[in-house]
Design a protein that fits this description.
The chain is mostly helical and 94 residues long. 80% of the residues lie in helices and 0% in strands.
């Protein structure tokens, strides 16, 4: 018998006393990352507006792309953690 299938059949479910606080911390981190992304976009937008107002020829596309890349990574982190943490996804014997 395949060892991976045997391990999947005996999947470990951690107790709720462990997962509940971790879920709460992940929820707080998700809100903080969202706030940081919004703040980053507002800061870049403000810098762009000031540069246009003063006539400076600064390049803000790089900053915008960095903030947007960070937002994409942050948005993908939650579903990735949820996918990896699903014990019932691999355990089909229940």
């Amino acid at each position: 018998m395949n060892a991976a299938l045997t391990m999947a059949a005996l999947a470990y479910d951690p107790p709720a006393s462990v997962t509940t606080p971790l879920d709460q911390v992940l929820g707080y981190l998700a809100w903080l990352v969202t706030a940081a992304g919004v703040a980053g976009l507002m800061i870049v937008g403000t810098r762009m507006a000031i540069a246009v107002k003063t006539g400076d020829a600064e390049e803000h596309l790089r900053e915008y792309l960095i903030v947007m890349g960070a937002c994409v990574v942050a948005a993908a982190a939650g579903p990735l953690v949820e996918f990896v943490g699903l014990a019932t996804f691999w355990n089909t014997s229940r």
